[in-house]
Amino acid sequence: MFVRHHLTLVGALAAVACAPRPLAPPTPVVRGIDTLALRAHTSFLADDLLEGRGTGRRGAELAARYIEAQCRALGLRPVGASYGLDVPMLEAAVRPETTVLRVRRPRDTTAFAAGPDFLVVGGTRSALRGFAGEPVFVGTADAIRQAPDALPPLHGRVALTAGPVQATVAAILAARGAVALVHLLEDERTYRLYAASRDLRLTLLDDPGVPSSFFPALPAVIAAPRVAAALAEALRGGRVTLELRAAFDETRIPARNVACLLSGGDRRLTDTAIALTAHYDHLGISLPDERGDSIYNGFSDNAAGVAMLLAIAQHLTEVPVGLRHSVLFLFFTGEERGLLGSDYFVAHPPLPLERIRAVINLDAGAPPAPPWNWRVAGGSDSPLGALAVDVAAARGWSATVSPATPNSDYFPFARRGVPAVFLIPGSAPYQGLTADSSQALRRRWDRYHQPGDEYDDAFPFSGLQRYAEYALALLRALDGR
C-alpha cells in the first residue's frame, strides 16, 4: 500500500511538473483599420442588388437595414427608440409634356423641353413653381459674392448665372429682387452629369419649417449649353422674356437616417458626443451609359464613407482603451438630393446640438493609394481645423483649411454653429508614387457619378484605410482635449 501510494504521489507530482503552466492573460493586439471590413461593407453596399441606393427606394432601405445590423452587431446603441430616424420626404415628378422653358422675343418664341434641355431645381415646395421675367446675366458665384453692389437691377428679373450657385449666393440675388434663377452650363458633359444625378424627379423634405442648406428659395433651372446659346443670341436682339411653365406629380416616399452611439468612458462626458458622419444614399437607377448600365452603384460616393465609419466603430470596440466622449455615428439619407437627411437631422436633432462637440464628415470618394496631403473643408471656420492640421503634421502629412460650403453633410451643422469639418484627400501625388503614377490611378478609378463607380476586387484599399485612419486620429485628438 505504502509503495503503491508513494509511486502514485510521485507520478502525480511529475504530472504536475510536466503540465503546462497557466498562461498570463494575453496582451490585447491593437489593430488598425481593417481593410477586409472596408472590402466587405463596400462590396455589399455597392452591389447591383441595392440598385444604386436611391433615396426612398428599395435599395436605400436595404442599405439602412444593413447599417443597423452592423451597429447592432458591434454593440452600438440606438439614439432613441430605434436606429432608424424617419425623414419625411416627397418626390415631385416633373410632367415633361407640360413643363416647358420658353425664350420669348417680339417676333418669335423658342421652346425647350424638360430633360434634354433643362432640369428643374428644387429642394423646397415653395420653389416648385413657374416664373416669367426679363433675363439678365449676373456672372459667376464668386463675382456675385465678392461684389454684390455691382449687380445690375434685378427687381422682377430672372438672374442668369455662369454655372450653378449655392443657396447663399441665391439669397443675395433674391434680396435684390430676382424672381428666378437659370444656371447656364457651357459644357455638355457637365450637363449630362447633372441630368444623371437629378433626371425629372425632385426629392424634397415634406416639412416647410426646415430651411435648405443647398437649394435656393427661388424657382430655378439648370440649362444645357443649347439654352445658353439661344439666350445669348436672343439678348443681342432686344427685349426678351424667359418663362417657365411647370407641373409636378407629388408622392410621399419613405426615408430615414441611421444613428448609432458608442458610449464614452468618462461619466462626466458621456452626455457629450463627437459625431462621425457619412451619407449612404446614391443616385439609384438613372440614365444608362455607353454600356447600357443604368445602375449608379456609388462605391466611392459614398459606400466608401459608410464603410469607413463602420470600420472605425469596429476598431473602437476592439481596442483596450476607449474614448472619454461618446461617439455618434450618423448615416444620412438624401445627401445626393441636396443634404436632405442632414438638414432634417439638424432641424429635429434627437440629441441636442449643443451636446454634439464636433462633426467629422467622410464623403470625398475612395483614394486608390494613401494620400499624404489633405484639405479640411470647414476648417477655417472653427478651431477644429487647426487641430486637424496639427494631427496631419504629427504624422508627416500636410493639410490646409478652407471655408464650409454646402458640398456635403457637415454643412448644416456648421451653419448652426457646431464645429464641423469635411476631410478631403488632396491633389498631390500619393505617398510613394510619382505624379504620373498617381494620375494614372486617378484616371483608372475616378468614376464620379457614373454607373462604373462599382466595387472591384482589384481596387487597392490602402488609400481608404489611410483616409479612415486620419479621421480616427482626429477623433482621438479631439477626445483628449
Description:
The structure is a single chain. This protein has 13 helices and 23 strands. Strand 4 and strand 5 form a beta hairpin. The strands form 5 sheets. Strands 1, 2, 15, 16, 19, 20, 21, 22 and 23 form a 9-stranded mixed sheet that branches. 32% of the residues lie in helices and 23% in strands. The protein is globular and about 80 Å long.
List keywords for this structure.
single chain, 481 residues, alpha/beta, Aminopeptidase, Glucose Oxidase, domain 1, 2 domains, nine-stranded mixed beta sheet, five-stranded mixed beta sheet, 23 strands, 23% strand, globular, disordered N terminus
Short précis:
With 481 residues, this protein is of the alpha/beta class.
SSE layout and pairing:
Blueprint: H1 2-18, H2 35-45, H3 58-73, E1 77-78, E2 84-86, E3 89-94, E4 100-104, E5 109-113, E6 118-121, E7 131-133, E8 135-139, H4 141-146, E9 158-162, H5 167-175, E10 180-184, H6 188-198, E11 201-205, E12 220-223, H7 225-236, E13 241-245, E14 248-253, E15 256-262, E16 273-279, E17 284-285, E18 295-296, H8 299-318, E19 326-332, H9 340-347, E20 356-362, E21 373-377, H10 383-394, E22 398-402, H11 411-415, E23 420-425, H12 435-445, H13 462-479
Parallel strand pairs: 8-9, 9-10, 10-12, 16-19, 16-20, 20-23, 21-22
Antiparallel strand pairs: 1-15, 2-15, 3-11, 3-14, 4-5, 4-13, 6-12, 7-13, 15-19, 17-18, 21-23
Helix pairs in contact: 2-8, 8-13, 10-13
